[in-house]
């Protein structure tokens, strides 16, 4: 296997997130020279230098976008606004939520978290009118709130002949936003004749930062609201020619887990799940001693001790500190031990379901599930293979693991 270049040899985390940004270049989310310039000013595991580097690139890209707009260069303006939005997202990525003042309740958002998120949306929305295909802003009812969404439609010249427009629902995961999702499916789907819908649900993006809504394990409730909305929206807008009988769901990482949950809905006709976890507890405790976990589960070790151990580990690992802080924020918790126990609810395993049955047995549509052998988070055999093997009601020719 060929080895990739490591931008930060001493920080797998910073290297991973840099590659994540660099991976958006194909669809205009980054420029190689700008990324290299930013990397040159970042110190490994130093969130302050990370924030400054990407904020600098965001400001420069925005200035280029404004100049291109004044010169009537539509393509250059669109690309620069997309990069400005993505770099702004990156600038706030390493922000750390803080523990509650009284020691109880959820982690508190970083003071700049909401303003950065709003700025990402503002910059991205400036690119929308410059795109080559129609993009509609939508509001999706969820409980007493409205989830923000973007519906990307194919241009007439790229419609699939003699049929309605198939729909792809693109799910975000634990740490992204719908503007970043653009560089996956929305940038490519409309060119292939697909409509693509992105949105931010509980525990994600604006819904977390503005409304404080935490993430829920039964994502089929959220995706069900989205499909209900699409059905009503399509009925009210028949001229859009959306095909409600051709809905596909897709997501990566936690978004891959969400896609598999959503695929149990009979209205979903296909599913793409990239790097999903099968059970978040197994994922979160993968590198913890089994004897240690057993002692905790049997009550021989208290949660207070677990919290102290995790606190000590965070002092020597910025990545772990960031991961625990983020999890506490989108779970609405502050105790590391509570977070780990809460992870048990995010599972496809039958033993974790209310009815005791394997969740994936409900899925009957075609599914592709994939995993990376070099993933820094999800083990292929432990999670990807288990997801595939437990799709027991799908014929072999209708499920695939690359």
Written account of the structure:
With about 400 residues, this protein is α/β, with parallel strands linked by helices. The protein has three domains: about 10-130, de novo design (two linked rop proteins) (Up-down Bundle), CATH 1.20.1440; about 130-280 and about 345-400, Rossmann fold (3-Layer(aba) Sandwich); about 285-340, no CATH class. The protein is about 40% helix and about 15% strand. It is built from 15 helices and eight strands. The protein has helices spanning about 10-20, 30-40, 45-70, 75-90, 115-125, 180, 205-210, 220-235, 255-260, 280-285, 290-295, 305-315, 320-330, 335-340, 380-390, and strands spanning about 135-140, 145-150, 165-170, 195-200, 240-250, 270-275, 365-370, 400. Strands 1-2-4-3-5-6-7-8 form an eight-stranded mixed β-sheet. α15 (about 380-390) links the parallel β7 and β8. α2 (about 30-40) runs antiparallel to α3, α3 (about 45-70) runs antiparallel to α4 (about 75-90) and α4 packs antiparallel against α5.
